[in-house]
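1st attempt posting a full record on here, be nice pls
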Amino acid sequence: MTNGIYLSINNDTEGFRLPVNPEKIEVTMKGSGEEFKIAKLGSVNVPKDVELQEFTIESFLPGQKYAFSTSGQQQPKFYIDKIKKWHEERTSVRYIYANGAFTINLLTTIEEFTYDEQFGSNDVNFSLHLKQYKPFGIQKMKIKKSPSTNKPVAVKKKTPPRQNPKPRYKTYSLVKGDSLWKVAEKFLGSGTRYPEIAKLNNIKKSDYRRLPIGLKIKLPPK
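the predicted structure (as tokens):
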């Protein structure tokens, strides 16, 4: 298996390899820590279980053959139809990233799929957002007879703990002259953390330079 991204369903009976690798492979891992305020100490954070991993893939589907595209390349409609079908059918998708600095091989669900075509080109730009999927099922209660009384005894299986509520984020309203870089530098200690703010608030790259004054944004933990 060569370096690249593979998406498949039903134990790899249906799937494809992306014809063009993205510029970067993005993985998001969040904690679900809960923040409390303690007198004379201030804010403290209590760590909780790690949330499901999230993945963002941004690339393009070529409408023509390029030297860097993979063999077996299909037309953009082939990939778009597959992803839309899996999304509509709520099918879990195996996401594999192989032979890079790290490896990904997980079941995921399609959370968001956006694409567009620029005039003058048959290439289709797309953004695919995936979230880790863990199979689960409803457990049935089994009846076990007691050897001494021959009366049925209900045996209950342990149910998984409830998921922790989502953390509450601090917010900030943009003022004139603000940018995501400046906000990250001011509240997170480093302007290079601006992608975290963009991700948390679903701000697209195309909107970075036209953020409205007064926009209320959530801030990730410092």
